Amino acid sequence: MFLTITFSPSVDLIIQTQDFEINQLNRYKNFNIFPGGKGINASVVLNRMGFTNQTISFFDNDTFNNLASFWQKENLNIINIANNKTKTTRYNVKMFAENASFFELNGPKNEISNFQKNKLKKILNSLNKNDFVYILGVVEEELLTQICEILKKKQVKFGLDIDTNNIEKFLAFEPYFYKPNIDELRTNFKLTKDDNILQTLKQIQAKGSKNILLSLGQEGCILLDEKQNFYKSWVETKIKVKSTVGAGDTLGSVFIANYLKTKNVAKSLILASACASSTVSQWWLTKKKEALSFKKYIKIKKLKNDQTNKDFIL
Q1: pTM (global) more than 0.90
Q2: 20 to 30 A from 256, CA-CA: which of 8, 50, 99, 226?
């Protein structure tokens, strides 16, 4: 089973408008309300692309039940670990204007109770070496340490796409997959513009992670696989970006799900890049038909270990 976890879910109000002016009355054209959270984003896309998966969330009961029609529509296999004492799940506002203005207002993250933590640990302790757990977003570090300890002891493969300043601590648990973006790489590994990205990825791999997928935003992504091969993928067409929400979640989840299934690096990277490119061209997450239509625009090449940044940054 492929399992994703969203530790701090939300309800996202996504607003589309012609333009936006600060200190003015602004009117919007369209809006949508979706459940938010990196693990939920990943599971929705995986479901749409035909990958069997399950997701764990921590919504309060009322909010979770109010989203029942969404879970049914997406046919999402979701386990919600609620705590009746938990405050109402946070609401986020994301505004996208056609004049390129953009802003987000994110509510305070939910706290997870000991009751919820224990229920999560019970689920994780029931897994085996044939399962995969994808951990995304912001996680309380003490809880994340306990989760990694359980998964390593159970020999369960897992992936990390987490927001932490102590990533090296968790790489020591030898995650099968790690998906940083270029900003996280610069922050966590003090990368400067003169440092070689490929050599930095090799250093990260030496710290424990088997496969590393680095998102470069509009310039594509770089993969260092478990056989120590480098690949660069990018999209060879101009994309009109509508929303970047869920793009990284799409990229990471589709790549590792397809790679676990096929063990084909190139095909997995092309599919993941197509899905991520399609996601940014939508107001929300991609669907299968739209994603597959982007495959013809995706380019991939194998990189040499001694290449410098200017050889592969477009």
Answers
A1: yes
A2: 8
**C-alpha Rg value of the chain to the nearest Å:** 19
Give residue 86's pLDDT: 61
Number of CB atoms found within 10 A of residue 223's CB: 25
| Residue 234 burial (CB count, 10 A) | 20
Q: Residue 309: pLDDT band by 50, 70, 90 thresholds?
A: low
Token digits of residue 116: 């919820």
Query: Are 275 and 235 a contacting pair, CB within 8 Å?
Result: no
Residues 55 and 76: their CA atoms lie apart, in Å, by: 8
| Residue 236 pLDDT greater than 80, yes or no | yes
The strand pairing partners of 136, in sequence order, are 6, 161
Q: Give the homologous superfamily in CATH for domain 2-312.
A: Ribokinase (3.40.1190.20)
The confidence score (pLDDT) of residue 287 equals 96
The DSSP-derived string for 260-284 is HHH--HHHHHHHHHHHHHHHHTSSS
